[in-house]
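TASK: fixed-backbone design
INPUT:
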């Protein structure tokens, strides 16, 4: 349904809408100003009553005083459908000569000149006759919408481009006329017209779908009960996907953080631990039993940046396995793993979050203090169910473990050495500044060193800079100078406050450094994709496409790449 352009106040007790979502919504509405509305009557097959339902709605509009014009409607000899045309004005068809015959097509120019409030144009996937301005009818509809004319049309599920191969595999017939899914997704309103396969077969037998001779041939081929069941399921699922996307947009625009369990959706978090592959397989079986959508994500947090290559390779392997099993995969940037998972779960309306429980040694500090990742997620998002699974049997975990043993991250000695030198330099400079300023002002110099060290070398050196700054200030500038003994206990409070402020500033700068690096990497990849799209739009031959693809892939991944193409016998060479 169209969305009103007036801003709705937030109900009491609910968070205020996201400003970014509101801006995006206003921009979309501004782009849609003056554009017509598209209504699609959607069904699983011919004969379910799409055209009849469209004409019945048009009769109600006409009786309500709204101008309705029939651009083209195919009755296929159905008496009930033809009766619905009574009283509706019909646009004369355009005659086009083709190979000694005269073809009758929809007259786009006449419709644009007439500019009705509502135009009925049946069979959106129809291919226009040679000599028409556009090769496809959906392109005619786009021009009508741009002119501000509301269009009502019909389409079957087998004509959607993304489902064309699926339908061909089910019914054994390749449908040549297709419509881009974007047309369906951008429609302002989709009305599903559905009847049971048994009722459709009775209509076919009674001659209410095709003429009797054509109906008998269709019942032996396309109109088999198994085909109709499969097409009906595809149509309902595709409509559910669209409704689910509309619901997510609504929740995003109004900043609704609670999960609406209208559809089962599982979110799986992997971390490169042994057993992640077994966990993914286990959740894949769970998703099939629940008939649920599922997603597998990895949070690229700062503390995971310097993990061994074997762990990073294990993560990529797990994500690839999840994609082969039918999951949606993603890598999420974020400074905090729990917050990143919660934000993604709210955005995608995930009803359950599945985590693996890695084995913990008996001396693990998490056993004695602090909150684990599942506990933090429950605290941040109490509406989501958190499932902690073992990730399979111990044998499976052993088999999935990385071949190379995990090694501790090597200490960045250059960073620590640089921090030490910077603190000593600041101490010498502070000795000179004490002749002019008070010791309280000199503290700011050490804080500056902490901030710059965290920005340059990261969290660890930043924390060392904070501690070393406090020690230098105590040893060189607090009476008695030249020792760590403190005569005035008030300086203890100064030291604690100075250390706390330095650590907080250092961690914030380290997080900013990480987010800047992630943003730069994402910008680099987005730029590569934009250049790929630009270059491919100008490619005319297969050799040009291959050369552009290999150049782009090699540049993005900084690796050698190869492309295998099938020959005439569908063999890779």
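OUTPUT:
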């Amino acid at each position: 349904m169209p969305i009103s352009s007036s801003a709705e106040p937030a109900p009491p007790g609910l968070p205020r809408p996201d400003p970014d979502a509101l801006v995006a919504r206003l921009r979309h509405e501004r782009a849609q100003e003056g554009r017509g509305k598209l209504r699609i009557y959607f069904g699983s097959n011919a004969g379910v009553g799409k055209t009849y339902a469209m004409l019945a709605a048009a009769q109600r509009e006409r009786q309500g005083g709204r101008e309705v014009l029939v651009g083209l409607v195919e009755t296929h000899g159905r008496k009930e459908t033809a009766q619905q045309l009574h009283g509706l004005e019909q646009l004369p068809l355009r005659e086009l000569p083709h190979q000694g015959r005269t073809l009758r097509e929809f007259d786009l120019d006449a419709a644009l000149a007439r500019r009705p409030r509502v135009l009925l144009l049946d069979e959106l996937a129809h291919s226009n006759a040679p000599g028409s301005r556009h090769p496809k009818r959906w392109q005619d509809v786009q021009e009508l919408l741009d002119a501000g004319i509301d269009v009502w049309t019909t389409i079957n599920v087998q004509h959607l481009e993304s489902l064309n191969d699926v339908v061909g595999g089910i019914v054994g017939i390749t449908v040549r006329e297709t419509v881009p899914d974007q047309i369906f997704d951008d429609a302002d309103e989709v009305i599903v017209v559905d009847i049971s396969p048994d009722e459709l077969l009775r209509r076919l037998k009674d001659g209410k779908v095709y003429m009797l001779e054509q109906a008998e041939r269709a019942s032996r081929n396309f109109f088999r009960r198994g085909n109709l069941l499969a097409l009906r399921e595809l149509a309902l699922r595709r409509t559910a996907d669209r409704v689910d996307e509309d619901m997510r947009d609504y929740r995003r625009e109004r900043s609704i953080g609670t999960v609406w369990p209208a559809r089962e959706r599982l979110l799986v978090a992997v971390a490169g631990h042994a057993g992640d592959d077994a966990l993914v397989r286990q959740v894949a079986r769970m998703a099939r039993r629940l008939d649920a959508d599922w997603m597998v994500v990895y949070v690229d947090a700062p503390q995971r940046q310097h993990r061994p290559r074997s762990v990073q390779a294990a993560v990529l392997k797990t994500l690839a396995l999840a994609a082969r099993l039918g999951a949606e995969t993603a890598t999420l940037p974020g400074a905090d793993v729990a917050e990143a998972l919660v934000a993604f779960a709210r955005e995608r309306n995930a009803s359950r979050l599945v985590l693996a429980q890695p084995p913990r040694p008996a001396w693990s500090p998490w056993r004695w203090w602090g909150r684990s990742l599942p506990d933090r997620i429950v605290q941040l998002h109490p509406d989501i169910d958190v499932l902690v699974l073992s990730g399979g049997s111990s044998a499976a975990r052993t088999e999935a473990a990385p071949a190379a043993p995990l090694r501790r991250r090597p200490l960045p000695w250059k960073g620590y050495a640089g921090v030490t030198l910077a603190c000593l330099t600041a101490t010498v400079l502070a000795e000179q500044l004490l002749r002019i300023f008070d010791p309280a002002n000199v503290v700011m110099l050490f804080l500056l060193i902490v901030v710059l060290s965290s920005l340059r070398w990261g969290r660890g050196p930043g924390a060392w800079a904070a501690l070393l700054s406090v020690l230098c200030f105590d040893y060189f500038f607090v009476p008695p100078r030249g020792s760590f003994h403190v005569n005035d206990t008030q300086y203890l409070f100064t030291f604690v406050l100075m250390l706390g402020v330095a650590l907080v500033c250092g961690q914030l700068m380290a997080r900013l450094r990480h987010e800047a690096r992630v943003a730069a990497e994402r910008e680099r990849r987005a730029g590569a994709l934009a250049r790929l799209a630009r270059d491919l739009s100008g490619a005319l031959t297969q050799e040009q496409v291959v050369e552009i693809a290999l150049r782009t892939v090699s540049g993005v991944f900084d690796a050698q790449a190869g492309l295998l193409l099938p020959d005439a016998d569908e063999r890779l060479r």
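COMMENT: The chain is about 50% helix and 10% strand.
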